[in-house]
Amino acid sequence: MFDNKINVLKALAIMLIVSGHLEFSLIPMFPPYSFHLALFFFISGYLFKEKYFDNIQEFITKKAKSLLVPYYIYTAFYLCVTLIIAKLTGMFWGMPINFKNYILTPFLNGHQLDLSCPLWFVTQLFITMICFLFIFRKLRNMDKLKQLGVFFVLALISIPLAKLRNDELILVVVRTLFSMFFVYFGYFYKNNIEGKYNIFTTKWLGAILAFQSLLWLTNKDYTPQDGIGLSYILVWGEFDSFLVPILTSITGIWASLFIVEKAYPFVKDNKFIYQIGQNTYHIMANHLFIMYLITAVLMSIKGLPAYIRSVHDIYWIYSPLKTTYFYFIAVMVISTYIGVLIKYLNKKFIKKANKLSSINL
């Protein structure tokens, strides 16, 4: 049975993604870019089923249907949106339209369209999970701690390898080696820690905060809000240090689990929280476009010309000092209910198609 706590954890994870793109941290001492993507890989590992060891084709088909099919539907949609915006503003938010950029680039860096660029994670998750399955199959008779050690070593190798990230294929290798460790970590946590050890005591909290304060010593003359040194940019394979990205990902995952563990009794009956957790894909796909539209409305109200928006990158928002939290709430609400609506329409379509099929038979 699906664990509702994991659904709440997914809700927290996607909120961390959105807050990161709005440049603020939901959890003090734990900047989103120091662990938020590792948390998503952790969740994927938590949900991994060993039955797929002997059902590889079923696993690949399932992942292709759940990850790649909606990915290319969203890519087609946002290509149309980008073309419309280009006609209205003269600014094309993406790469030139050609076969490589829209068929191959999704598996290389995933930034062929600015409005949907957060979906780079989807194709990387597909690659990571397929590679993870094949490697884990080879290691399945090994002791669990030794398995953890193998994936940890692979993550360590990825960090110095990232210095060659100017090569697109090397970048994919780096992201895959790094992320597989956290997929296994999620699997390891579910099967070897959860329900067997209580790691959410006040002593654990004190120890993690003390250790995190030591990790903060790796900061590089930036303010605490930035978290530079702890933060790393997995999408481009940018790491500031050798071991810290792995350690701070682990502490950030623990902090997230701790928050869910303590908050769950208060949110377990909150329908909206569950809807967020059930629609992370749609939130990931649409939140930048919603931010873009909010900015356009605010600029229109202020009577500002469109060229001001076009000289900034896709993450730019209007008057961030005053509007950041408004953007966050608006984006979470709108993108969540877009997902709810899409699922409702899809269910109605499938129901109608099945009805027509039965009539024809």
The helicity comes to 55-70%
The number of distinct β-strands equals 0
Query: Class by helix and strand content?
Result: mainly alpha
Average pLDDT confidence is: 93
- Major sheet attributes: none
- Our estimate of the beta-strand percent is under 5%
Q: Please count the helical segments.
A: 13
> Termini separation (Å)?
35 Å
Q: Would you identify the regions where 5 or more consecutive residues have pLDDT less than 50?
A: none
Please trace the helix and strand order, writing H or E for each element.
HHHHHHHHHHHHH
Q: What form results from the Cα inertia axes?
A: globular
Describe the structure.
With 361 residues, the chain is an all-alpha fold. The chain is 68% helix and 0% strand. Helix 2 (36-46) crosses helix 9 (244-267), helix 5 packs across helix 7 and helix 10 (271-278) crosses helix 13 (320-360). It is globular. The two termini are 35 Å apart. The model has no long low-confidence stretch (mean pLDDT 93).
Labels describing this entry:
single chain, 361 residues, mainly alpha, globular
